[in-house]
Structure formats: structure tokens, C-alpha cells
Amino acid sequence: MSYVGDSGEISATYRPIGEVETLRRPNVDNAFVATGSVTNGQFGLFQYTMRPHAGGPDAHFHKTFSESFYIVEGTVRLFNGDKWVDTTAGDFLYVPEGGIHAFRNDSDAVAQMLILFAPAPPRENYFRELAELIDTGRRGEMSEEEYAAFLARHDQYMA
Predict the structure, then answer these.
(1) CATH homologous superfamily for the domain 19-123
(2) pLDDT tens digits for 100-114?
(3) Who contacts 64 (Cβ-Cβ below 8 Å, separation ≥6)?
């Protein structure tokens, strides 16, 4: 039990869309709807919109948080650690800590999903830093060991 009061309290957090940071990339818009700083570290919720043929990350896993995917629009290919599954609106995938997974949009249409991280790691920092590495060209200059260290700092390990 995380709340021990008897009468409840006024403690909700409202975030109008204008307060939500969206990281816009050539193939993806990533809206940081609820970061751990908003949810007291309980979870992070991102709205991830992929343009047609946006691709996605290679198979990987996380040691300290679970990741869940809820498909809102289009077709998202999800890797459940065993096989790729074409998912559509309303489909859901839960990946516990250590679970191998990946996602991508290989279709001719926009695809959108909600990604839930629990508890809330600062995944927004991973996405911001990765964008900076790509934009500055430093990603191409990194050795595999340096890139693996960057990923590990963000609790991301390639499978």
C-alpha cells in the first residue's frame, strides 16, 4: 500500500497538450506525455508516431524496467523475443524486465503507439541524447564499445 491516508487528497497532475514535449525526428515524433518527473517515478508514457517505413530499433532488453506497447493506429511490427507479429489498433504487448523486444513500422502508412515504461526511467534522456549523437555525426564516430556504453548508461542492451 503506497497511500495510507483515510480521506484521500487533491493530488492529481493535469498536463495540457501544450506542456508535452515532442521530440520530432525525420521518421518519428515522440511525445513525452508523462515522464517520471510527472508521475513520481511510477511510470513513463510516450506517444510514439512513426511515418511510413520508419523502421525501428534492433532487438534489445532492459534490466530495470518493463515496457508495454499499445497500438493506436496503423500496423506496427512488434518482436516478442521469439517472433515478429504484425499488430494493429487495440493490440497490446507487455515486456517484463529482461524481455527481448523490438518494434518497427515497415508499412506504407503512419503507425502510432503508446509506450509505457514502469517504473519510470528517464527514457526521454535516451531519446534526446540519441538524437544529438545522430544530428552531430558523433554516432558514426563511436566505436561499438562506446555505443554499447552509451546504451548501457540508459539501461538498453542489444540482444
Answers:
(1) Jelly Rolls (2.60.120.10)
(2) 999 999 999 999 999
(3) 97, 119, 121, 155
